[in-house]
Design a protein that fits this description.
The complex is a heterodimer of chains A (177) and B (204). Chain A is of the alpha/beta class and 177 residues long. Chain A has helices at residues 4-10, 12-23, 38-45, 58-70, 81-84, 91-97, 119-131, 145-157, 169-172; strands spanning 26-31, 51-54, 74-80, 101-106, 135-139, 162-167. The chains are: A alpha/beta (177), B alpha/beta (204). Chains A and B meet through strand 2, helix 4 and helix 6 of A and helix 3, helix 5 and helix 8 of B.
C-alpha cells in the first residue's frame, strides 16, 4: 500500500487537498470532469464513505450543495472556471437561503493560457462570482493550497459564507495549445 | 391587476386531471416525506397538502434547482423519504438532472412532476410537454428505473404507490389541466426555511 508520505511526495497538494476536505466532513463531491480536478475526482470515486456525483452541468452542483445542507451534510462542487458561468442564476439559491457553499475552481483563460476561447469566462470568473456574493480565495502556489482551503472550509461551514477557491493556472499548469 | 387564466391555456389532449385533487391523492400522508418544491404552482400544491411545515423547502427562484436539491438531501438522509414536487417548466430548465440522478439512483428519492403543459407564472405560454416532449420517456431514457405517467383517476393509486414504495429513484409525471393551483400564502424567506428545515430534521 502506498504510504501517505510517498503519495504526497509525488503529487503533494492534490492528495492533501482531498484529505483536508474529508477531515472537514465533506461527504458529497459534485463534479464536472476536469483535468485539474482529476485526482480529487478519482479519490472521491474510490472512497466508500462519500458520494461522488458526476454532473451534466455545474449548476446542478449548486443545488446539490443546498440539498445536502438541508440534510446536515457537507458537499463541495469541483469545476472548471468555464463552469462558473453556468452557475450564476443558481447562486441565487445560495444567497437567498444563506446556504454554506464551497467550490474549488480550476482556472482556464488565466496565467499562460494558449486557447483563445478560454479567456472570456476565465477572466470573468472572479468578477461574476463576486457579483453573486461568493468570496474568492485565489491560490498561486502549492504551499498555499492547504492553508487557503482550510480558511475556505472555515468561512463556508462555520461562517456560513459562499466561498470559491480558485486554483490558478500558475498552480495547476497552463495548457499551451 | 392579475390577468385571468387566458384562453390560450388550452389543455393538450390527455391533460384532464385537476391538480387540486390529484396532487393530494398522490402524496397521501405528507408527514412521511421531506419536500422540495418548485417555485410556482407546485409550491402551492405542496402548501395545500403540508401547510407551512418545517419539512418543506419551497423555491422562490433559482429555477431548475428542485430535483438536484432532492438528490443532495436524499443522499444526506438515507433514513428519510424525499419527495420533490416540481413543474414541467422547472424540470425542463435543468432536465439533465434526471441523468445525474438516475446514475446515482438513491432508493429514497421520489420526484413528482406536475405537468400542466404550460408556464403558468409567466402568462400561460405552452411548454414543451404540450408540444410533444414526454418527460416519462426522457426519464426512462436517462435510466430512471421506476417511472410512470398519471393521466387519469385510475392511475392515481399506482402513482401514489410508486412515490412511497419504489426501491430506487422514481419519477411520476402527473398530467393536469392548465389551471391555477389553490392559492397558498407561502413563505419566501429562503434562509428562514433553511434554518427551520434543518432544525426540525435534526430533532426528528
Amino acid at each position: 500500500m502506498e504510504s501517505a508520505v510517498t503519495r504526497q511526495a509525488q503529487t503533494p497538494w492534490q492528495h492533501a487537498l482531498y484529505d483536508l476536505l474529508r477531515e472537514h466532513g465533506v461527504t458529497q463531491f459534485g463534479y464536472v470532469p476536469d483535468a485539474g480536478h482529476s485526482i480529487l475526482i478519482d479519490r472521491s470515486l474510490g472512497d466508500p464513505d462519500v458520494h461522488s456525483i458526476a454532473l451534466t452541468t455545474e449548476e446542478e452542483g449548486v443545488a446539490l450543495i443546498a440539498g445536502a445542507d438541508l440534510g446536515g451534510a457537507r458537499a463541495v462542487l469541483l469545476m472548471q472556471s468555464s463552469g462558473v458561468g453556468n452557475c450564476i442564476n443558481m447562486l441565487s439559491l445560495i444567497r437567498g437561503g444563506r446556504f454554506p457553499f464551497l467550490t474549488l475552481v480550476s482556472m482556464r483563460g488565466d496565467f499562460g493560457e494558449g486557447n483563445p476561447w478560454q479567456f472570456a469566462m476565465g477572466q470573468a470568473t472572479q468578477p461574476t462570482l463576486e457579483a453573486m456574493g461568493v468570496i474568492c480565495l485565489r491560490i498561486e502556489c502549492p504551499e498555499e493550497v492547504v492553508p487557503a482551503t482550510t480558511a475556505a472550509l472555515t468561512m463556508a461551514f462555520k461562517g456560513g459564507q459562499a466561498v470559491a477557491v480558485l486554483l490558478s493556472q500558475r498552480l495547476i499548469g497552463a495548457k499551451p495549445f | 391587476m392579475p390577468e385571468p387564466n387566458p384562453v390560450s391555456a388550452v389543455a393538450a389532449p390527455g391533460f384532464v386531471l385537476e391538480r387540486s385533487e390529484a396532487v393530494p391523492a398522490l402524496i397521501g400522508r405528507h408527514e412521511d416525506f421531506l419536500f422540495i418544491s418548485g417555485l410556482g404552482g407546485t409550491a402551492c400544491d405542496v402548501g395545500a397538502v403540508a401547510g407551512d411545515g418545517a419539512h418543506v423547502y419551497s423555491l422562490g427562484g433559482a429555477m431548475g434547482a428542485a430535483a438536484m436539491m432532492g438528490l443532495g438531501l436524499a443522499l444526506a438522509r438515507p433514513d428519510k423519504r424525499v419527495l420533490v414536487v416540481t413543474g414541467d417548466g422547472e424540470l425542463l430548465m435543468n432536465v439533465g438532472a434526471l441523468a445525474t440522478i438516475a446514475v446515482v439512483d438513491p432508493a429514497n428519492l421520489a420526484i413528482l412532476c406536475v405537468d400542466n403543459g404550460h408556464y403558468g407564472e409567466t402568462g400561460w405560454q405552452k411548454s414543451h410537454t404540450s408540444l410533444g416532449v414526454d418527460l416519462e420517456k426522457v426519464a426512462i431514457g436517462c435510466g430512471v428505473k421506476h417511472a410512470c405517467t398519471v393521466a387519469s383517476k385510475a392511475d392515481l393509486a399506482g402513482g401514489a404507490r410508486l412515490l412511497r414504495e419504489a426501491n430506487g429513484t422514481c419519477f411520476v409525471v402527473l398530467r393536469v389541466k392548465p389551471t391555477d393551483p389553490a392559492p397558498f400564502k407561502r413563505n419566501f424567506d429562503g434562509s428562514l426555511l433553511r434554518d427551520r428545515f434543518r432544525a426540525a430534521l435534526q430533532q426528528a
